[in-house]
From TrEMBL:
This is Nitroreductase. The keyword NADP applies. It comes from Akkermansia glycaniphila. InterPro entries: NfsB-like, Nitroreductase, Nitroreductase-like. The keyword Ribonucleoprotein does not apply. CDD domains: NfsB-like. Residues 12-189 form the Nitroreductase domain. It comes from the Bacteria.
Length: 213
């Protein structure tokens, strides 16, 4: 287990990598751990209204690079993941989660019915534009969680919002699927030529962003 100082050091080491070393590859065991971080990422109500696409195909990566304003991270990183959110929330999504909880936890029928009623009570939050924003925020939660996990393994990342989601959907065949693109996320190892790696972090003093009461 990491010490508190080791964890803080990992966070200080992390930055948004702008130039990856295309020859540096992530070891399979390390990548498996990072996929598990996606798998275990927290989500509101535990609903996991997302899907993560690991894009290994080089031709598809080139097309996604073009749909990312030619940012080279998409092409050069060892791994590239497209983070997708549900387009909407259906009763079937709620029931799928409740049934999975029953399978894992052996919950009672009464508890399953109670969970369904609770989820339906929250359904106002995932309607219309507010619901779209709420589902996108879940994907951002996952991205931050995985970025921290990657830093602990000394794997560089770049969370990429500077993309054309509709073009991604077209390239990946998502247009008629329940999911839509929200973010891209590149993983690999920084190039020695990336000057950003040597820059100090620009953060406000901690007492300006954290208060206690």
């Amino acid at each position: 287990m990491m010490t508190p100082q080791e964890y803080k050091d990992a966070l200080m080491w992390r930055y948004a990598c702008k130039k990856f070393d295309p020859a540096a590859r992530i070891a399979p065991a390390t990548w498996d751990a990072l996929e598990e971080a996606f798998h275990l990422a927290p989500s509101s109500l535990g609903l996991q209204l997302w899907h993560f696409i690991v894009v290994d195909d080089r031709e598809i990566r080139e097309k996604l690079c073009e749909a990312s304003f030619n940012q080279t991270q998409v092409r050069d990183a060892s791994k590239y993941v497209v983070l997708c959110a549900r387009r909407d929330v259906q009763d079937s999504d709620l029931l799928a989660h409740i049934n999975r909880a029953h399978e894992v936890l052996n919950t009672s029928e009464e508890r399953m019915q109670s969970a369904y009623a609770k989820y339906k009570g929250y359904s106002v939050f995932w309607q219309g534009d507010e619901g779209k924003s709420w589902m996108e925020s879940q994907v951002h939660l996952a991205a931050g969680f995985v970025a921290a996990a990657a830093a602990c393994l000394h794997v560089d990342t770049c969370i990429m919002g500077g993309i054309v989601p509709a073009k991604y959907d077209e390239i990946l065949g998502l247009e008629d699927s329940p999911y839509r693109t929200v973010l891209g996320m590149a993983f690999g190892y920084r190039s020695p030529e990336d000057a950003h790696a040597l820059e100090a972090k620009v953060r406000y003093p901690k007492d300006k962003v954290i208060s206690h009461c």
